[in-house]
């Protein structure tokens, strides 16, 4: 469009200037004839129409973006964890205090470390050292309602032979920098005996801690801890639901109405009932990954972030729709769609559609203007 405008409105003038220069170089003869009044009218009409289109190109994107409640630039994107120390990312938790940051940790044989990774760059922006902790098999991480991180040293690669496992709790740092903390330690046992588990979930409203065990020899299930964990003695977790999944991680939605459990190649969404039990809804698409070990909801609850182990491990988003959406996210999305959604005009048109309509109308106006000017030119000549 811009090239067309330049050619129609300025091309003849540039040609005239070039011709004038050639004439001076060759001989002092008269320059080209002065454009007729009709030709000048054509040029003015084209210039005015092009100016109008230019104004639309400059202002329409800004106006529509300003009216959007959730622009594409803020949508979660896939990223890779670049820190060479993180080769077995086995848990994932979206920070509430630091937008775009995800907490993760290695599996066994790393040390008492938790890492904050910026999803915009893939770089580690903080390392938290858990003082006094000698981890055995750290498998899960979750953020509680009070802004505290819970780390689950709950893995049992020996098939459920450990008589007890542990959970560590510490406050999410207000500033992203390397630091050392002394966490609270909770001792955990299962009411029906030891088992292997990799999924630690803290309910974002009640603060109650849950563990999902692997479905090894039909032992898969969701276990609830006491209403409040105690650092004194043993916390016994009771089975509150059965699962048929080899769960490698799990997460509650930010509003607490959904629970997601993932395995290496699949995932299932559950509705979290009022009495604190999982009710299956449907399966969820999982991206193809080397060894899918982690998952978390984004802070708005509309997207799942799936992570994998391995050097340069990838974290990939999966948008949720329909019944899979948590209740609060579904209500927010419905309200946006009712108001026109993502920068719409209240009549179902999106920001991009409105922009295309406006620019299309301006282009049509330009064509009509040029046609009328050319028609006037030929009428005068005839």
Automatic annotation (TrEMBL):
Compositional bias ranges of the Low complexity kind: 9-28
N-terminal signal peptide: 1-18
Gene3D superfamilies from the UniProt entry: YVTN repeat-like/Quinoprotein amine dehydrogenase
Sequence ranges of Basic and acidic residues compositional bias: 331-340
InterPro entries linked to this entry: WD40/YVTN_repeat-like_dom_sf
Region (Disordered): 1-39, 331-353
Keyword set, alphabetical order: Membrane, Signal, Transmembrane, Transmembrane helix
UniProt key word Membrane: yes
Segments crossing the lipid bilayer: 41-63, 357-374
Name of this chain's protein: WD40 repeat domain-containing protein
